Amino acid sequence: MVENIFRQIVARRDSSVSVARIILEAAAEVDRPLFYSVAVIVAGFLPIYVLSGPSGTLFKPMADTMVFALVGSLLVTLTLLPVLCAWFMRNGVRERRNAAFEAIKSAYTRGLDFCLAHAYGTTLASALLLLGVAAAHPAHRRRVHAAPR
Questions:
Q1: Position 90 pLDDT exceeds 90
Q2: Dist CA 20 CA 90 (whole Å)
Q3: What are phi and psi of 98, to 5 degrees?
Q4: Are 79 and 1 in contact (CB under 8 A)?
Q5: Residue 19: predicted pLDDT
């Protein structure tokens, strides 16, 4: 939420739209994906509630903790964070340049452009690397010994 708000404020700093309006639109942009991502994670914990016996006794408190923490963080994200961003970012934000990140991003972009320009070569090199690693893996060299009788 905060990252999207920050990104939108930086991207639209030259527009005549108020910071509060930008924050509202940025929050609305990510509220549904945030809700569904939390819902999917919570759904993953639901099978724990049907466990019985010692495993149910052991894991139900953990599931309760995770579900309450996720729902609580979702509520804070959807309600409090946009308000705090509107208060702390009311004068706009300034994005600082990170030289190390820019260098890594530039190298990655050049490598990605090269790989996309040479798709067949990249696929062949990846397949050969995979086969080489599979051939060198110790599981292929293991000898099966007969069990002693």
A1: no
A2: 7
A3: -110, 105
A4: no
A5: 87
Q: Within 10 Å of residue 22's Cβ, how many Cβ atoms?
A: 22
Rg (CA), the chain: 25
Cβ-based neighbour number of residue 6 at 10 Å:
16
Q: Which of 106, 99, 89, 81 is nearest to 7 (CA)?
A: 89
Report domain extents, the chain. 2-95, 100-140
- Cβ atoms of 92 and 9 closer than 8 Å: yes
Q: Which residues of 29-67 are buried (b: 16+ CB within 10 A; e: fewer)?
A: ebbeebeeebeeebeebeebeeeeeeeeeeeeeebeeeb
Dist. CA 149–CA 146, nearest whole Å: 9
Tokens 């340049």, located at residue: 97
Q: What is the pLDDT of residues 39-75, one digit of tens each?
A: 999 999 999 999 999 998 999 999 999 999 999 999 9
Q: Which two structure tokens, joined as six digits, stand for 102? A: 């820019």
**pLDDT over 90 (residue 1):** yes
**% of the chain surpassing 70 pLDDT:** 93
What is the pTM assigned to this prediction? 0.63
